[in-house]
Amino acid sequence: MSTYSSLKFKLAENIIDSDDLAALAEWVNRGHQLTKGGLTLEFEKAWASWIGTKHAVFCNSGSSANLLMAHAALLSGKLKNNKVIVPSVGWVTTISPFMQLGFKPIMCGADSNNFGLDLVDLEKLLKKHNPSLVVLVQVLGVPSDMKAIMRLKKKYGFTLLEDACAALGASYADKKVGAFGEMGSFSFYFGHQLSTIEGGMVNTNSKDLYDTMLMLRSHGWGKDLDEKTRAKFMKKYAIEDFHKPFTFFLPGYNLRSTDLNAFLGLRMMKKADSIAAIRNRNHLVYAENLKTVSFQKWSDKAFPCSISFGALARDSKHRKKIVDALDKNGIETRLFSAGNLGLHPFWFEKYGKFSHPVSDRVHSCGFFLPNNETLKEEDVGFIASVVNSIEY
To answer: What's the CA gap between 352 and 22, in Å, rounded?
Structure first.
């Protein structure tokens, strides 16, 4: 078994490079405020512009971003019920906030092409349950069929929440993922397309949802609201001005990030387009060269920007042989995300095990191949050749 230090091709390399660290050290030594301040606002504005929404809220992780989305939706006053469609392929914290906040989650199977929501299964669930919310994961940065999703949204009138935590830079029909729903979440964890060490973001075009998330992020107080909105809340509840700094309007959290992280985020913005181009190129090279395994498919309207390349062996024995060969060649791999989330105890202890043909295949046959900005085309070709060398 290869040790991590001996790996030749890793799933993730540190996108925060020596130049970023030198610039950060210089900035810190100049005595700037490290906690949330002006740089956070600057980063939020730049990120909102890049994704293509009016607002963005920076927080301490992608998981916290999902929590903010779930709680803001709950407090919006626009939900017809507490039912929410959740994906079987994604991450635990795509789903857990809805469990924690008292929603009724209903699991949907995975699409046979992109491994996002199975649109046939989704429409059946929409007809049967008439849910208020649908949570869509843009799996690994391979966009779902957003034209079809938006058609269902219009037909059934649900609120769409996009988990784009692993899809920074991906787009559909020249529109960035994370900008299609009422809210979209992103993660800046190490190994993602862009990193602030830890960090997350929620994008939205709704001023009301934006204001709600600003309060939820910071204890529930109104300090981060614009003065006009804050004054409106003060007047609504007849709060004396002396209490203004420490009046809590919502039952909030402390999910703030810092200006130190935002400094790195602004550095990332300068790399965003070039990194997206490299990851897209690598993704396409994998798709062209892999012959013995299946993998995510996408429409000609989609621009994949994958965090890792997700593939499916023919069965679990085939996957074991591939994993062994990758390890012998110093190529890091791992399970495909978390597989079928409906087969994990957090879910089945409460709702029973969930089974779906594609979701179950992802669980039993799925694995990752490296995709990061350090890989050259010939590196990707070599990795693909190792996979192709394994006979079924």
So the answer is: 51
